[in-house]
C-alpha cells in the first residue's frame, strides 16, 4: 500500500471513556468537561487541533457524553441574555467554542479500546491522513507539537507519534517504543512498540503521549488486529505492525517532545495543570501567584 501524503485537515478525539478516576465528579459529567481554570479540558484539545490547521474534528463518544456536543453547539438563549446585558466579553467566550471548528460525532458503542475508537472514525476520515488527540494530554499552545509532527510526515511519509522521556520506573504506565536516532534531533525511527511494559522489559525510556499523526493505512491494520492487553484492540499493536512492515503504510517515526505538557487524566496532575495554567494567565496570574506564595509559606 502506498502511504498517503494528502494535506491533513481532520482530527479525531476519542472521548468515550468513563472517567472512573474522577468519581464521583464524573458520575453524571463527562471527564472531558471537567474545568481547567475556566474552560473544559476538551476545549483546549480542540483549540490545539484548530491552531495546527485541523478544521474538521470528529469526536468518538459514548453514553452520557451529550454535554460535549452541547458545549460546541450554539446556545442562543444564553447568547441573547449576554447580548441584552451588553456583556460582550462573556458573549465572545461563549460563541468562541461553537465557532472553533466543524464538529462531528460518532458513538463507539462497546468500549473495546483506543484502537477500536480510532477504527470508528474510518467512515469519516476515509483515505486521508489524520491526527488523533487524546483528551488527557494538554499541550501548551506555545509548543507547536502537531506542526512539528506534520513536518516530519511531509519528509518521511507514514505515521508519526509523539514521545517523551520518562524515568525508567514510570515507563510501565505508558506505551513504549524501540527506536533509532535519525539525522534530525528529537526525531527517531520506530522499530517496535509495546503497551505498558514492566520496567525491566521496556526497550527504552521513550513513552508514547496522546498525539498521533496516522496514515489511513492504519484502518486496514486495525481491522485485522486481535484484542491485546486488557482484551482491547490496542492502537499500539497496529502501529507495531506498520513499524515492522513499512510496505503496508509507510514507516513510523516519533517526535520526542520536550515542551510543556499538562496531564489531566490523573487527579494530582490535573490539579497541577490548573495551578500552572492559572499562574500564567494575565487576568488571574499576578493575584493568584501572590496568594499561592503566601499559602505555601504558611504550609511550610
TrEMBL record:
Record-linked InterPro entries: GalU_uridylyltTrfase_bac/arc (IPR005771), NTP_transferase_dom (IPR005835), Nucleotide-diphossugar_trans (IPR029044)
GO molecular function: UTP:glucose-1-phosphate uridylyltransferase activity
Coiled coil: none
EC number: 2.7.7.9
Keyword tags: Nucleotidyltransferase, Transferase
Cited SUPFAM superfamilies: Nucleotide-diphospho-sugar transferases
Family under the similarity heading: Belongs to the UDPGP type 2 family.
Protein name per the record: UTP--glucose-1-phosphate uridylyltransferase
Organism: Streptomyces marispadix
Taxonomic classification: Bacteria, Bacillati, Actinomycetota, Actinomycetes, Kitasatosporales
